[in-house]
Amino acid sequence: MKVYLLIMLFFCGISFAQNTITGSVTDSNKQSIPGANVNVVGSSTGASTDFDGTFKLSTSAKPPFAIKVSAVGFETKTINVTSLNQNLDVVLKSEETKLDEIVVSASRTPERVLESPVTIERMGIQDIKKTASPTFYDGLENLKEVQMNTSSMSFKSINTRGFATVANTRFMQLVDGMDNSSPLLNFVLGNLIGVSEIDVQSVELLPGASSALYGANAFNGILFMNSKSPFIYQGVSAYFKYGVTSQEAAGTNNYYDLGVRFSHAFNKYFAAKANFTYMQATDWYATNYNDKTISGIDRTNINYDGINVYGDEVSTNIKGVGQSLAALGLIPAAAVNLLPNTNVSRTGYNETDLTNNRAGNTKIDFSLHGRPFGDERLEIIWQSKFGTGNAVYQGANRYYLNDFFMQQHKIEVKGKNFFVRGYTTTEDGGHSYDMVFTGINVNRKWKDDRTWFGQYAGAYVQSTLAGMTPENAHAAARATADTGRFLPGTMAFKNAFAQVIADESVLTGSKLVDNSKIYHSDANYNFKDLIKFAEIQVGGSFRLYELNSHGRIYTDANGPINYNEYGAYTQLAKKFMDERLKFTGSIRYDKSKNFDGNFSPRLSLVYSAGERKNHNFRGSFQTGFRNPSTQDQYIGFNVGNAVLLGSAPDNLVRYREILPVSTAAGQAFAGGTTVVMDGLKAYGNSYTASSVNAFSALAASNPAAGAALLKKTNVNYVKPEEVKAFEIGYRSFVKDISVDLNAYYNVYNNFIGNLNVVAPYYGTAQDAPNPAAGPANPGAQTLHALQNGNYRAFQLYTNTDVEIKSFGFGAGLSKKIIADFELGVNYNYAQFDFDKAKDPSFEAGFNTPKHRVKVSLGNEKLFQNFGFNISGRWNSEYTWESSFADGIIESATVIDAQINYGIPKLKSVFKLGASNIGGKEYTQVIGAGLIGQQYFASWTINP
What is the rounded CA–CA span in Å between residue 752 and residue 317? Predict the structure, then answer.
């Protein structure tokens, strides 16, 4: 803090004589234009208009000089200032400029959207004001190309161009240049540590591969959120939202969202800002009680494993239990024949009983900005961001992120043609826990698994001898085994729950521990002022990961795991043919610790046709790649029914667990009562899970036929995946209609995914082992292991050898149809091609609807200070594949609407809005809660 004060005093002590110019900016209807930019021509000095369209500009320039006034949706105007007391009342004419806006992200240099070499979507200050969604981040879903995946009300994952997932490691999100990804998880946690909506300057979205400029993780798209400069946007801003959420399962609940922004430029050398936001709501209840694996069965099934029921993952063969009881002399040997050769699962707990269903987010950030020369030639920024919240993350299991905390700290030096920045990201798991293991270990608090299944088997035998039908015998057996079960809501349940979620051991608890960090630096220099024949840029980045889950998630029980990656790039851009043809070429080299380096080139052409150069055709080709994530390499996470295991060579050695072996024969084959399982056995001595399922279905009736279906796992360690991306597009105005068309074709090789396998405790896995070969045969021993529960299931991280292709196209149209009524519509088509027969155990997880349509209608000038906006979206049904659960996501139609009224004297806008009006509840992720309706009222104050 002393350092901050010294910096502030230093900059505040520097001052020179300043001239102040004031004025106002309105449209042709005399409506004020907030957020208009006012800049001194030939200088970087500028200001912006406040809510009622007035501005105050301080400059060292002396009259005469000129100022340029611009605003999105209006023509730019230049005004000559001849005296300091000149009254500047500027009137801007309305103009459709959506395709003429300036963007930076596509080429790392300012350019018109029309000239962007790739598809780009943008949301500005006015778009945020108009959005009908509860938050600006929710409103991103209405952009063309965007698909939102809602795991929780406070955790939404953005995806573009297929292969959607909650844990979207193929998509990047940068806030003021900082990657928002979790160091531990490698993906973005929505807007947990993002930006407040009253501090957003602009949002830019690049769908598709962007690896050539932004590195390996920008594989399927990248989102840029840029905050407001305190030199330009000054004063105190605030907003408050109150509303309700409505869901059949959760009922009607309150929703609060508020924020405040403080910003001040002490002089032209020093400025500072701070933001605070707070959101609290009741999450969407997850109540999908379908079975995970078998469609159509419910809780009456003896081996039920419900999607949102936890603890029932613990399952065993009840006949094998009987054999163990008989060997101990607890039941007669003949009684074993009364038991069915089938699996039975324990009774689980609903997700709603294992979480408080609270969704929330608190963000605080501040930054100090110094300009040693008093302008944008050089700016030094210190920025700190803190975010904490409650949300549900869905991966292989469902995890409640309870008081999850992230912080980022950045120092950046930037100028007209360069930037150098370094930042660190740190996180703390807080009181987060795995809900699946919570259910499993709460069950074990009142009765261990061996006792529960033993009582079940004994009660089933007794009921059968008493003349009960198998169905009734199973019901009686479960009732007996469930005697003493802790019921939700009771003190015994609450005490057991509290103990489990505070315990880090997967054997007895479910707490997630995480203190991982990222250290990142990057730089860029543009030679445009030194080299004139073309615009040339160079840049690079370095990142160090420090994984520290204390052995709970990664194999880091003996200390943090460190690994690094780095990259460098260059880009050349040049215009030809009277500046109608723009060529851009770039190439990037990236190297990660465990993998060979890769080059990512990109070539693009943009041709501007027509007298006004407003018919813009573009085409691009680029290659991209994605390094395996930290999870792909270093995870060693027991999720109950399987172990998630990364394939870094040192990870396979570090992962070890000691497991008990059942049956006397099994112990003889294993050479003892326990066996050590490690990662090398998982990758080198296992069967594919799909072939084990096929074997199990026939093992009792025809073991030889079942064994013939077994397939030994043939899997390589994970390596980088690659994409070749082709894109063409067209942007223009055609008879006052804004047109944006694009099409893409992607070819993926070495696509990263998961493979489920089963590793026997003993024997040697082989294709179609012979059950008649005798007990000394290693292949026959694996059959014994599979039939007696002596195996460990793994989910491995690997690549498929099958080439995957995806393709699609999009069309966006917008037009002012009557007066100031603006109509927008866009359509996206997406499809992929993967030959499942060539790799039946591999799930590609495209998880994207084939058809999506989005429509909006609005008028911000319906009458004085009053506006409205309605947006609607529809998607076709599609298949969802994930390591947690698979299923069909039904088609959905969602309509959002808002009306707003401005009171300039109060510098305020009041808004009433609703999302999913009149629509039925829908889902975006199999396993997450159905999304209901949300109604809100907001009050925003801007200076």
Answer: 33
Angle at 689 between CA 686 and CA 690, to 5 degrees: 135
pLDDT in tens, 152-164: 999 999 999 999 9
Nearest to 135 by CA among 32, 228, 50, 243: 243
Residue entry with tokens 């196209």? 809
Task: For residue 400, give the 3-state DSSP assignment.
Answer: strand
Instruction: Give me the residue label for tokens 């590793």.
Output: 759
Read off the pLDDT of residues 449-463 as tens digits, 9 standing for 90 and up.
Answer: 999 999 999 999 999
Token pair in block for residue 191: 């807007």
pTM given for the model:
0.88
For 101, 460, 675, the CA distances from 210, given in Å and listed in that order, are 21, 60, 47
CA–CA distance, 601 with 581 (Å, rounded to integer):
20
- Cα 37 to its chain centre, rounded Å, is 33
CB 277 within 8 A of CB 270: no
Enumerate the H helices of 643-688 as residue ranges: 649-654, 664-670, 679-684
Q: Which amino acid is at 221?
A: G
| Residue-level pLDDT at 15 | 39
pLDDT tens figures, 508-563: 999 999 999 999 999 999 999 999 999 999 999 999 999 999 998 999 999 999 99
Whole-number percent of the chain with pLDDT over 70: 97
CA R_g for the chain: 31
Report, as an integer, the average pLDDT of 114-122: 82
Q: How far is CA 776 from CA 667, 669, 762, in A?
A: 14, 9, 11
Neighbours of 540 (CB within 10 A): 17
pLDDT tens-digit series, residues 553-572: 999 999 999 999 999 999 99
Alpha carbon distance 310, 578 (integer Å): 66
CB 659 within 8 A of CB 674: yes
pLDDT-based confidence at 129, cuts 50/70/90? Answer: confident
Is residue 838 a contact partner of residue 802, using CB atoms and an 8 Å limit?
Answer: yes
Task: Note the pLDDT tens digit of each residue in 192-235.
Answer: 999 999 999 999 999 988 878 888 778 888 999 999 999 999 99
The rounded distance, in Å, linking the Cα atoms of 164 and 890 is 16
What pLDDT, on a 0 to 100 scale, did the predictor assign at position 699? 85
Does the CA dihedral 443-447-451-452 come out positive or negative?
A: negative
| Burial grade of 532 (CB within 10 A; 0-12, 13-18, 19 or more) | exposed
Q: Are 480 and 447 in contact (CB under 8 A)?
A: no
Q: Are strands 88-92 and 19-27 parallel, antiparallel or unpaired?
A: parallel
pLDDT above 90 coverage of the chain, percent: 71
- Residues 423, 381 contacting (CB under 8 angstroms): no
The region, left, alpha or beta by phi > 0 then psi within -120 to 50, assigned to residue 726 is beta
Total residue count of the chain as it appears in this document:
943
As a whole number of angstroms, the distance between CA 939 and CA 34 comes to 16
CB neighbour burial string for 129-144, b if at least 16 within 10 angstroms, e if fewer: bbbbbbbbbbbbbbbb
Nearest of 536, 604, 617, 538 to residue 208 by alpha carbon: 604
Measured in whole angstroms, the distance separating CA 783 from the mean position of its chain's CA atoms is: 41
Smallest CA-to-CA distance from 501 within 440, 448, 434 is with 434
Residue 446 tokens read as: 């009142």
The DSSP secondary structure of 494-527, one letter per residue, reads HHHHHHHHT---TTT--B-----EEEEEEEEEE-
Three-class SS state of 213: helix
Contacts of 2 (CB under 8 A, 6+ apart): none
The Cα–Cα gap between 506 and 731 comes to: 55
For CA atoms 156, 159, 162, 164, the dihedral sign is: negative
